[in-house]
Amino acid sequence: QQPAAVPASLPDGTGSAISRKGRQVQLRPLLTEPEAEACRDIGLLPFTWTIDRVAHRISSSPPVLAVAGLAAAVTAWLMIRRYQLSSWRQLWPAACPLLLPPALRGLLWLDCSRKHTWVLPDYRQFGRYWTAPPNRIYGAFFNSAAALASRSANTEDNFNLLVGTAACLHLDDSACELQRVGVPAEFRGEGIGEIICRHAMLQSRRLGYSRMQLHVSSDQPRAIRIYESLGFKLKERKPIRELGLLITEQRLYEIDLACLDPVKLAGGLD
């Protein structure tokens, strides 16, 4: 499968590309707060997906399942001894402890979401955060023809259909961080994530940054493959533990933008 390419990326932050399915992709910076705020859900997709994975991993861990099973068994035994039940159908209340894992998953999801709303600086003011210089956010859009072809109804709402985002956080005069790379599930597999990452890297290089870094969890193998194919090198691993369990691993990647060939970065990986 051929990698998607960015054949045209201009100094003003705009560009265009062709996806793996042959659809034209328009790339441009999101300059206004309302425009950036409209792509908030897409930009935060990896974050919300990771929270759900962490909650699922904890709630379905062997210790939690063992406690739920043991509680159900003990409840059933106590009911049989105390009430002298004559039918197993009367033991349905003993199954209530089996609801512990899904209930715990929901509580963990809410707790993680609540904590990270205070940790993430852009969670509450996404548009204002990413349109405030020197931070930048870019959007990938299907042009009107591709947008109309991708939807059953031909409405004006399909013009400039947002299919991906990537943001560049200013760290210092020489370094920035790639964040908020998100592509909706229905548009994955077309190389849009690779396209918009290349675009963000090229624009950051043009703006004078010599290094770019990013953080990604080990639960995102597809994203990791894209970053490594673009030349990002693993610099650090940080295990994340909850309730004594290894939940995921946070990885720090970095790339030297100054050493990249802008022609190859814009045109492909050959």
TrEMBL record:
Residues annotated as domain N-acetyltransferase: 110-248
Highest rank taxon of the organism: Eukaryota
Entry keywords, A to Z: Transferase
UniProt-listed InterPro entries: Acyl_CoA_acyltransferase (IPR016181), GNAT_dom (IPR000182), NAT_camello-type (IPR050769)
GO molecular function per UniProt: N-acetyltransferase activity
TM helices/strands, residue ranges: none
Protein name: N-acetyltransferase domain-containing protein
Organism: Macrostomum lignano
